[in-house]
Amino acid sequence: MSTEPGWPEGYDRIVLRTVDSTNAEAARLAPELGRPTWIMAEEQQAGRGRRGTVWRMPAGNLAASLILRPTGTAGWAALRSFMAANALYETLALYVDRTRLGLKWPNDVLLDGGKVAGILLEAAGSGGAVDWLIVGVGVNLAAVPDGVTDAAFPPICLADAGARATPEDFLLRLAGFYATEESILEQLGFQPIREKWLRGAARLGEEITARTPQGETRGRFRIIDEAGRLVLETPQGEVRIAAAEVFF
Ligand SMILES: O=C(O)CCCC[C@@H]1SC[C@@H]2NC(=O)N[C@@H]21
């Protein structure tokens, strides 16, 4: 049990020197854990990104995964990506002015228009129920990873934006903000979380493009709905999108 001042009550923490992927380690440990647990590693050798990509982590960046046993449906569990994004936004706002931050649907955090943090949700369960959920977060704190060629949202790190944070300090604050999001979901549901996410959203009300394997949809980013879907106003009418890559 972690007793560090500021660490949220009811959450445990494991700090590893090195690991393949904190998400993979979280999946291995999940069956044994009785409480929500953050797993952080100083070095991650085979970090996983969304859509099967590799997540590179130079020394001094944060790699951490939270293991949860959420109640409810898989769709309800998946709302944690917005909660993690909100918690990342609040944590980053302790270091840089929040006007420099933006949330990109569904779960990237931008700083000065570049990607500073990513979220990878992985779950296991059967019959529509979720046994455990892993919320993996990677934050470029100290350095920009090599070899990332995302021209639309090039990686950026907090240090290059003029702010310093150690992974330990950042996680302490992130875990606190995340625990607050869980309390809000439990007591008030998704609505306040959605409103908060929308306050930080990049390009709300503007034209954006959502790319899926079926093609591209361009429209005005109106809102995210009660299930976290992206709502675009297009010349053909309103379109709700459950999964896509977004471009500005
Ligand atoms: O592609 C993305 O944007 C998501 C990146 C998520 C990376 C983090 S680092 C900690 C955790 N462990 C992993 O293997 N991936 C996530």
UniProtKB/TrEMBL annotation:
EC category name: ligase
Record's signal peptide: none
Reaction catalysed by this enzyme: biotin + L-lysyl-[protein] + ATP = N(6)-biotinyl-L-lysyl-[protein] + AMP + diphosphate + H(+)
Single Gene Ontology MF annotation: biotin--[biotin carboxyl-carrier protein] ligase activity
Entry superkingdom: Bacteria
Keywords: Biotin, Ligase
InterPro entries: aa-tRNA-synth_II/BPL/LPL, Biotin_CoA_COase_ligase, BPL_C, BPL_LPL_catalytic
Gene Ontology CC: cytoplasm
Listed EC numbers: 6.3.4.15
Ranges of residues in domain BPL/LPL catalytic: 1-186
Name used for this protein in its record: biotin--[biotin carboxyl-carrier protein] ligase
Originating organism: Oceaniovalibus guishaninsula JLT2003
